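2024-03-11 09:14:02 DEBUG pipeline.ingest accepted 1 chain
2024-03-11 09:14:02 DEBUG pipeline.ingest length=304
2024-03-11 09:14:03 DEBUG pipeline.predict start
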Amino acid sequence: MIEFNQARADAPEQYLRGFGGDTSNMAIAAARLVGDAGRVGYVTRVGDDAFGRMLVDLWRAEGVDTDGVVADRLAPTGVYFVTHGASGHDFSYLRVGSAASKMTPETLPEEIIRAAAILHVSGISQAISTGACDSVFAAIAIAEESGARVSYDPNLRAKLWPLARARATIVATIAQCDWFLPSFDEAKTLSGYDEANAIIEWCHALGAPVVALKCGPGGVVVSDGQRTETIPGLEIECVDATGAGDCFDGAFAARSLAGDSPFDAARYANVAAALATTGFGAVAPLPRDAAVRKVLDAQAGARE
């Protein structure tokens, strides 16, 4: 999606044009961080329009393979606006009938999905249309058949679908993923629990082997069903939290692909996500590996 982000509180009429979309953010974050461990590709649809071409150019410039991206001549590229207030950032979406919402299982590039070691999917993709939701489940089935691991972020957005349908769909998907990456607030809404360990147990009971519960400034709670570890948040000046959770997802996948344990992957992703909040927009502040390593090295030195 194309992003228009409110630039400053004292100039609310000014917006900075950027790029967004949770899975796009995740793919770019992973591409910036994966290094020699692997490659990142994206499967989606964009409009055959100026915005769609901007996105394709962005992904290519970031090293994201676009063989799985289709330009739709009959549907536009989605757009969203980000505004900022006392309660944080708020999103306004213009994506009904967007190209991405026109995805169906029949349009999936099966050979690309079968070649993947990790498939990342999102609840937002499931929410934007029935066809897109069916496509997510179809992609998971293809990935599981080929032995890929499935990463899932529910990214619950109440504006997109009724809670009852969201909960039923997300619960069904949790049972099919290898790691589940919810935020605390959305997991609280979905589970009805307001304590981290209870939420973790709920996730495991539904079938998630690994859970990384993202708690914003509070860090992340990680569990593999046998061990649970709380990783504290990074003290940093937050400018804009847009895309931070997506950055966590990309970093977690990048380090998992490199062979890290869920706990080591989460420590790395926790730092990456914090660094992603130090600038405006969903893409521009996404960090490189060197920046994350610098913070991790400083943390290690402080503990010695």
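2024-03-11 09:14:41 DEBUG pipeline.report The chain is about 40% helix and 25% strand.
2024-03-11 09:14:41 DEBUG pipeline.predict end
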